[in-house]
Amino acid sequence: MVTKINKAAVALAGILLLVCGCRKHEEVFFDTPFVRLEDVNGASSLSVDRNLDNLLTEIRIVVSASKNYFTEPIVVEYEIIPGDGLKEGSDFKVQASTMSPQTFSPGTYSLPVRVIWYKTDNFDPDKDNTLTFRLTRTSLPEMLLGCPGKDAIKKEFIFTKL
Amino acid sequence: MNRIVSFAACVLAAASVLASCQPKVTPDGKCEITSFTLSSAKNAALPNDVKGVIDASAKTITLVIPTSVSATSFIPDFTVTENDVVKAGGAALVSGETSVSLTDGTKISVSDDVSVMSVDYTIAIKPNDEIAELVSICFKQADNSALTADVAPEAITPEMIVRVPGEAFRKELVLTVTAGQNDAIKVNNSDVESGASIKVDTNFPIDITVSDQVAGKSSAYVLKVGKILEYVLSKIGQYTEGTIADFVMTINPADDCPYFAYARKVGDEKYNNISVAKWDGSAFTLVGPTGAADASARAASKPRIAFAPDGTLFLQYYGAEVSNKPTVKKLDSGWSLIGEAGITPQNGNSSSSYNYPLFVHPASGQPAFFWNGNTKNEASYRVMNYSGFNGTAWSSNVVSNAPALGSGGTANSGMYYASSCVIYDGKVFIGSSFNEFGYYVHEVNADGTLKPIVENFIPAGAPHGLPASLALKGDGQGGLYLMGADRATNTMQIFTVDASAGTLKPFGTGIPVTIGSSGGVTEDAGFAVSPTDQLVVIAYDGAENIPVFEYLDVDGGYQWSKFAAESPVAAKSAYFLEFDSKGNGYIAYQSADGIELYSVGLEADILPE
């Protein structure tokens, strides 16, 4: 009797497992649109030699979005946060046409943000000489800022003038 | 009955009154189509909306249809002025509803319902080029005062570079762009009409996007604005081993490095000996054992070096222990004598006034040289002689088709002064000068015989050529250049060799020189031609023997332009100028402290990237 019950229980559990295994995942995680900041090497930070003048650097805003989401232009906004050791115009300059916001037409997945760095005589190594670019908003509500994951990697890019 | 008639009359009267109360339609005086679009939403064959371009005066509606679309019937969305009725082929069209055949020449009629106005529009169908392309891009001189000419890239490519003069570098410039049919242009995210201009900051790369709305395509371009690079002269360093008395510099084709053979005296040595060193790109290093000659008893002088195509180094010097006859050695594990010491049957003129090259003929791979005998009553005396090694022994002879001594106006005319050698494409060429004669250029055959290219060229108005500082150089493209002097104008002069005409042609302006008491040019000089861009560089003695370094500005009217050089020290020898195969130039001369070495090359490139 016990054996029969056990067999029935095992069979039922097997059926349940099969039924559960056949259920579709409702979350299709890999289809989540997201936007990130990185340089040509895929890095999210870069050191800038303070002795170099007119040094041009380029980072890229990269969107990952399937056609399901990318039917209309996507606007991406970012903010620029200079440390107290850096001053725009004398230490660096951002190319006007690459300033926030940036609009991605369907089919465009990467747009540059360019920064020129200048040599200055009043560099203070004790100050905060970082320049942070941080994603703040996109026109696509579903789009994540930074790579998927709790750390939102590449939500910001940090230059450090050394 | 009367009642009925009266009632009818009343009804008619009332109807008449009512009718007269209807608002009267006032003609707007217009009868026009104001928009005409084929939307992709209502026309599945179209990948994108096609907006008609209406020419109100010509009464045409131009529709650009992708060539991939075969359909000819479409449902147009259109608007018209008030009370207008649109028909095609007599059938009324309702905007957004009626399908109509639209081909090139189709007539669309519009009539005003409340007036007699009517008009016919003609449909013009134009195929789209289906390409989103940038056609041209230019910084026009007319728009940019810092430019002296229009500046455009060589070709339209996804990544383009243009170069502007220093005055315009990193400045805001006006850019003119044109694109293909139906293409919209964005420059740095700003819309620009095709053929129009926009200001751009050339500190940054310029992003250009061209979109073909009809085809639904786009192309992206990046334009970088660099500086027209200029040649710069830089001092590499100074080299010495003991005290240097004399030297030469030659590029080794195998490693592209400049090699120096020099006569030097080290420490308490009594006599000069010969050594070889090279600049390896970062340091001067000795090549082979120092002191290649047997100078235990007598001095060695007049070093020369030559390289076989595989880079094997041959060294020649005049040894006092063999009556100032030349000796040639090869560098293998050490310095190996080639044949016997003191090669020539008579002693040679080793004075610094006479300058003869050692060379390795590519056809034989064996060393050879020309020389001037200094033993009276010998056939070799003061004329051009040749000595070549056949792998076993040296043989020497008087060159038969060179000027003979005394064959000019005086007893010393025809005396062999100097030759300079160029090896190109497996051939050996020499330029030569002889007392009271003009300049000669020959091809040297493998057996040492000479094939004339230019014979006895005398600059116009001059009595003859001048011996000092003669040099023959190649430009890496088959062209030969000879530096001589023009006695008619008292200038140093670069000539190009016109082999087909058998003559020399002045190239660039002459450089004034001093003619000394012996009738020769006082200033030492040397020159070279870059094999990569044919830049001609010259170095010569300025005031108090301070070197002057110049290049020929071909674009600037073939004038000589000075290199900026930081206080070069005075020269006490001839100048040796050579370019390696990559176009890196070297200038060497001897100062009181050793060999001074300079480099000539393009300034570092700075591109916004």
Summarize the structure in words.
The complex is a heterodimer of chains A (162) and B (609). Chain A has one helix and ten strands; from the N terminus they run αββββββββββ. Chain A is mainly beta and 162 residues long. Chain A has a single domain, classed as CalX-beta domain (Immunoglobulin-like, Sandwich), CATH 2.60.40. Chain A starts with a helix and ends with a strand. Mean pLDDT of chain A is 86; it is low at 16-26. Chain B is mainly β and 609 residues long. Among the domains of chain B are: 33-127, Immunoglobulin-like (Sandwich); 134-227, Immunoglobulin-like (Sandwich). Chain B has a six-stranded mixed sheet, with no helix packed on it. A five-stranded mixed sheet of chain B has the order 13-19-18-15-16, with no helix packed on it. In chain B, strand 27 and strand 28 (335-337) form a beta hairpin. The radius of gyration of chain B is 42 Å and the shape is elongated. Classes of the chains: A mainly beta (162), B mainly beta (609). The A-B interface holds A 54, 56, 93, 95-98, 103, 105, 107, 112, 114, 116 and B 170, 188-190, 201, 203-205, 207, 218, 606, 608-609.
Low-confidence stretches of chain A: 16-26
The helix/strand order of chain A is HEEEEEEEEEE
Rough shape of chain B?
Answer: elongated
Cross-sheet strand order for the largest sheet of chain A: 5-7-3-1-9
Strand residues, percent of chain B: over 45%
Can you give the helix content of chain A as a percent range?
Answer: 10-25%
**CATH classification, class level of the domain at 33-127 in chain B:** Mainly Beta
Count of domains of chain A? 1
Average pLDDT of chain B, to the nearest integer?
A: 91
Report the C-alpha radius of gyration of chain A, rounded: 24 Å
CATH domain fold name of the domain at 33-127 in chain B: Immunoglobulin-like
Unreliable spans of chain B: none
Number of strands of chain A: 10
Shape of chain A: elongated
Alpha-beta classification of chain B: mainly beta
Class computed from helices, strands and strand pairing of chain A: mainly beta
Residues in helix, % of chain B: under 10%
